Amino acid sequence: MSADRETLEVYNARAGDYAQTMGRDPAAMASLRAFVARLPKGGRVLDLGCGPGSWARAMLEMGFEVEATDASDAMVAEASKVEGLAVRKAVFEDIDDVARFDGIWANFSLLHAPRAAMPDHLARLYRALKPGGVLHVGLKEGTGERRDRLGRFYTYYTVAELTGLLADLDMVTDDLREGADKGLDGEVAGWFTLTARKIVPDTEARTDTA
Fold it and tell me: Domain span at residue 106?
């Protein structure tokens, strides 16, 4: 999660409201099922910007090993109520794992970071994935950076912009989904989600088949 102070203040104050509204989006659930279908059985997943832990709970119930992070104290407290979930307070810059996760679920969390910081954040997630690992990203669709009426900071992206950033990391993207929903601020906004795979280097592929 971003370290933006105003954004964190909103989530700290509205964590309970957010917990009640999450998990009702069928498009997001379809994305979740498509995401986990690409993971090895019982694989390790990072829920980046986990909020109250709704998606992390679902993945735990599916049999995955889940670690979760969020920068909001209140969201960490909410997510910590999920039995069996390892939760820690962290901002995006704290992700320094190397080849640890089979999958990373970044569902509408990276949109709170400034556009200039996105290449570094994606590079960190790339390093944190195992070869062949899968990254799910959800963002609001559009251009520019601005705050919503609650004061949360948002960066808006086009599909082409995000796929370009992922291509720079030699990641292959698919499973594009688009829609529009009413957010915590009461505004209807367009969004998209997609997945990207970390390509297995040729040398490793040859070793695996030797």
Answer: 5-209
